[in-house]
Specification:
Low-confidence stretches: none
Helix content: 40-55%
Largest sheet: 2 strands, antiparallel
CATH topology of the domain at 47-103: Arc Repressor Mutant, subunit A
Number of strands: 2
Order of helices and strands: HHHHEE
Structural class: alpha+beta
CATH class of the domain at 47-103: Mainly Alpha
CATH superfamily of the domain at 47-103: Winged helix-like DNA-binding domain superfamily/Winged helix DNA-binding domain
Length: about 110
């Protein structure tokens, strides 16, 4: 009843070029070929600048800190966690991934 469908001309060209060994997509590489490795970029929060922002505000979240310092949210979150371990800030609220931090008054 159904049988096989007739292949369009565009698909025939693609299969023909694939058989010839040509890649039809950009960035499509054959097996075993490895592209250039991406450089790892690490962005750190300047500790003085970060502490100044935290102490000047009543409370801060990692999103606020990231926006004000111009770094990624993950970097700001890591910075706040490190400050919590050092005892410079404390977690005062929030839930799940939305934690609220406050500077510890000395």
């Amino acid at each position: 009843m159904g049988g096989t469908k007739k292949i369009t001309a565009a698909k025939q060209d693609k299969t023909q070029s694939a058989k010839d060994g040509k890649d039809t997509k950009k960035g499509n590489k054959g097996k075993g070929e490895v592209g250039p490795r991406k450089a790892e970029i690490t962005v750190m929060v300047n500790e003085k600048e970060g502490l100044k922002i935290i102490q000047s505000s009543k409370v801060v979240t990692c999103h606020d800190l990231a926006r004000q310092t111009g770094v990624k949210i993950s970097a700001a979150n890591k910075f706040l966690i490190e400050l919590t371990k050092k005892g410079l800030v404390k977690r005062v609220g929030g839930y799940s991934g939305h934690r609220i931090y406050q500077a510890v008054s000395s």
